[in-house]
């Protein structure tokens, strides 16, 4: 192997389809070599019985036999290449939650694109044929997704690439001929663009609702501030009225303060309940906004359309138009009652120092 390594390079044992070292290499009649699985899939998907390298046509599909010599050499090169790739591509290894490359053997690298024609996800290396080979360039590539089989029509085993507006469902080409012949059918991308616009409007509406509720929170907090100012004024007035009185008057003063503070506490408690409810609604709306934003930015046509109905409307919320905090009224309250009771006492208290001692 060391002597062969001096004369041969890894590129000489690389399949021109998958751009990787041969796996089960076979030789077609024109003399070119390919991975057995690669050339078989190529003939199944593209022009049958034609060499991808020189485009030589074969009258019948050649019988493929593994070239044992090339297979043994390729196995050693593959082992060397995998060790090298493991060191240089450590950051590209697929992590949990990421879509892995379906072609990689051994350590799976992170997929860069998924092919809706091949129903296979490819890493950067294995994607190369789709970017360079004429036949594969026509394939539709999307950002990597799992469950590519779910993008196939379960009835006809064809890609879901159309949308039936009549039945509001994704369909394949055969569906339009057989089951949806007279229906209003448009390309998946066209419906995707329309729904994406609607999602944008929904997101804007949700943001507007969030802003209105934030303004309502400001209004409630301002009402609480005004209520607190009123309470402070009443407390000060009560203190002034009862300062001159002794223990009995001080007890009345304490009762007045406690009564006013209790009203204020009830007002604040009511405001806290309103604010908590509004913040909960904002949290739900923000969650929905995030879901809508993520869905509107998705390039996954099928995923967007399948999730559209559940996310196209804002979640139900309470109508806060008529809701407000009413500061407690102190007119005719306990202060007036105590003033009426204590007025004679205050009058006597003020006049006594000026009474004639001899009267």
From TrEMBL:
GO function term, MF aspect, one: zinc ion binding
Coiled-coil features, chain-numbered ranges: 246-295
Top-level taxonomic group: Eukaryota
Gene3D superfamilies membership: 4.10.830.40, Classic Zinc Finger (3.30.160.60), Zinc/RING finger domain, C3HC4 (zinc finger) (3.30.40.10)
InterPro entries reported in the protein's UniProt record: E3_ubiq-ligase_TRIM/RNF, TRIM8/14/16/25/29/45/65_CC, Znf-RING_euk, Znf_B-box, Znf_RING, Znf_RING/FYVE/PHD, Znf_RING_CS
PROSITE patterns assigned to the protein according to its UniProt record, in alphabetical order: ZF_BBOX, ZF_RING_1, ZF_RING_2
Name by which UniProt lists this protein: RING-type domain-containing protein
Organism for this UniProt entry: Perca flavescens
């Amino acid at each position: 192997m060391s002597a062969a390594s001096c004369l041969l390079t890894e590129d000489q044992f690389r399949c021109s389809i998958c751009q990787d070292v041969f796996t089960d290499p076979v030789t077609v009649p024109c003399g070119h070599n390919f991975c057995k699985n690669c050339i078989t899939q190529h003939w199944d998907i593209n022009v049958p019985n034609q060499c991808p390298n020189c485009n030589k046509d074969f009258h019948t599909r050649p019988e493929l036999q593994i070239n044992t010599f090339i297979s043994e050499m390729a196995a050693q090169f593959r082992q060397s290449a995998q060790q090298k790739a493991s060191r240089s591509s450590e950051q590209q290894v697929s992590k949990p939650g990421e879509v892995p490359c379906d072609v990689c053997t051994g350590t799976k690298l992170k997929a860069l694109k998924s092919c809706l024609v091949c129903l296979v996800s490819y890493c950067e290396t294995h994607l190369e044929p789709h970017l360079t080979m004429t036949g594969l360039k026509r394939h539709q590539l999307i950002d990597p997704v799992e469950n590519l089989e779910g993008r196939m029509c379960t009835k006809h085993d064809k890609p879901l690439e159309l949308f039936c507006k009549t039945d509001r469902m994704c369909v394949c080409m055969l569906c339009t001929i057989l089951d949806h012949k007279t229906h209003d059918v448009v390309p998946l991308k066209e419906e995707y663009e329309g729904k994406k616009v609607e999602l944008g409007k929904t997101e804007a509406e949700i943001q507007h609702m969030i802003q209105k509720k934030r303004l309502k929170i400001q209004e409630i907090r301002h009402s609480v501030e005004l209520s607190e100012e009123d309470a402070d004024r009443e407390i000060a007035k009560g203190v002034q009225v009862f300062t001159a009185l002794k223990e009995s008057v001080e007890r009345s003063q304490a009762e007045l303060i406690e009564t006013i503070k209790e009203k204020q506490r009830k007002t604040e408690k009511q405001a806290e309940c309103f604010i908590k409810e509004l913040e909960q609604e904002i949290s739900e709306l923000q969650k929905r906004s995030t879901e809508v934003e993520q869905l509107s930015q998705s390039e996954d046509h099928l995923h967007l359309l399948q999730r559209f109905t559940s996310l196209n409307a804002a979640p139900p919320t309470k109508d806060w138009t008529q809701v407000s905090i009413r500061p407690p009224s102190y007119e005719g309250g306990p202060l007036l009652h105590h003033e009426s009771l204590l007025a004679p006492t205050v009058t006597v208290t003020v006049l006594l120092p000026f009474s004639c001692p001899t009267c």
